[in-house]
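During the second year of the project, the team shifted from modelling isolated chains to modelling whole assemblies. The rationale, set out in the original proposal, was that interfaces cannot be judged from single-chain predictions alone. As a representative example for this report, we include one of the complexes processed in the last quarter. Its constituent sequences, exactly as entered into the pipeline, are reproduced here:
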Amino acid sequence: MQRIKLDVFHSLFEKELTGNEIDFIIALTHLQNGRGEAFGVHYKEMCEKMDISVQAFYDCKKSLAQKGIIQVTKGQKDYDIVLCGNDFTSYTDRDYKTGNVPYIRTNQKLFYDVNWKKLKPAQKLLIMDLLNINEAGKFRTHRIKRENFIKKYANTVAEDGSMERGLLNINARTLQTYLKMLKLYFYVGIKDGMYLITLRKQFSEKVVQSEHKQTYEYLMKVACRRNKIKQPDQKEYKDILQLLLNYRKRLWESFINPLDIFPKMLLIINDRVLNPKKWIRRLKASLFHKLLREELGVA
DNA sequence: TGGTCTCATCTGGTCTTCAC
DNA sequence: GTGAAGACCAGATGAGACCA
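Output from the structure prediction step:
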């Protein structure tokens, strides 16, 4: 589920995040299921995905947990990470059709752009907020009075002399410099004291067409790593992946974690081998199907 | 079974960047 | 120009894997 709920996103403005922390959250949304759970997050994969150092991974994980943005559970060689509040299970298909699900998609080309990594945290949050506004407006030009734009994002002085904090907690001059950067991703113009901001079409395109397929492909990868299945049979692999996609709705409605089925499958395959070190570690789609149906209570 | 190697994780320090 | 914070590097340590 490559998306982040709008209220979760809005809460990020208060958390004083670093650039890497924002990228960490976005990377998590690429791995998470509909409950905001990312199982089997491995430091090496995240380092490669985000192009960060190993230390940066641990710094981000620790810091985001301390800020209450994620909940981390240590696995054997990886982590199960929950992006707090990013649970989409309460929404129905009808909610999506009627547009009652407020969220930001994170599978757009914008987030994979080479310049994205170089941006400052406040710049990333500004872009994401404007992206959301543009999407909500069906990519029509966003119009906002210059003074309102500054008041919304930058710190300003109120009439009584007190400081009013903007969303980005920066001064107006800094915000002005950010406008140059905004032009990377948006057409930005000013007319009659109004900013006209439109997302460049090429950055709104999806990188991954099927979110569900990507979610379950990742799950398969984690299952093989955790169960030490080093060279899985490709046919069995594809069959199990297809099973997971076929049973997606039932899995969605239940609290069954498909990852729990893989060790059970290995246990049955090796029922006569007492020493797990001597187990034959392979996938068997027919057996997986049987166990999955049992777990789901399907006759 | 014990020695060796590799991997995962953490700590402390330094360098770099950037807002003011 | 400066101070603060982010990002990264080097090294230490412990756990587990591997092999003779």
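Residues 43-44, 54-55, 58, 77, 120, 170-171, 173-174 of chain A lie near DNA strand B (CB under 10 Å from a C1'). Residues 211-296 of chain A form one domain.
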